[in-house]
UniProtKB/TrEMBL annotation:
Source organism per UniProt: Shewanella fodinae
Gene Ontology molecular function terms on file: delta(3)-delta(2)-enoyl-CoA isomerase activity
Principal location listed in the UniProt entry: other
UniProt KW keywords: Isomerase, Peroxisome
Subcellular location(s) of the protein: Peroxisome
Protein name: Enoyl-CoA hydratase
Amino acid sequence: MTTIQVHDTQGVRVLKFNRPEKRNAMDLGMYRQLTEYLIQGDTDNDIRAFMLCGSSDCFTSGNDVAEFLQHPDLGPEHPAVRFLHCLTELKKPLLAAVSGAAVGIGTTLLLHCDLVYADETARFKMPFVDLALVPEAGASLLLPRLVGYQKAAELLLLSENFDAGQANQLGLVNQVVSANQLYEFALSKAAAIAAKSPSAVQQTKALMRVGKEALQQQMQLELTYFGERLQSPQARETFIKFLQR
């Protein structure tokens, strides 16, 4: 079974997380596929926008804990690290359609999206501190920029769930639509962008996405701390309990 399904339509590359038996938990193979499809699409003139989605009941439950314990070295060639850096280099617009759980990377990767749509079932959580870890994907920089320091501290330090309505109020989500309309609605927005001048769209995105160097530096600092925390006794104990559930 292909864990990342790819479908090109109307100038949009749709990338769907497809690992239902693990609630779309991100393993190394999924990160490799995502990076490959994004890099290839970014150079393909027929692809003008990307859209990420999951299943109707789960966007992604986060990283595959077992695999990260087996591959704790978060160097530049680690598939997850390559994916994160790919997000910062992406020239074409990236959209997301979120149903159900969006946990960990399922929430933080949305900070790199240009437009995000969710349905009323969407639930978000950044449980890094609960797992004795630190944030990743530049969330420690991007989230305070988006929602302000105090709210970012609440979301990252308390690690509480928040729903689609709250995500909309925070600006993490552009619009909340009904579950039976989400996919087509998000795709229509991606197709609308794809129909516009590619150079104008890409230059506009580049103008808004300033401070890439600072973001990449922050991501590297996060990865350093994340790697150290990943091998800490507290994190390993938490992960073992998680895997034994």
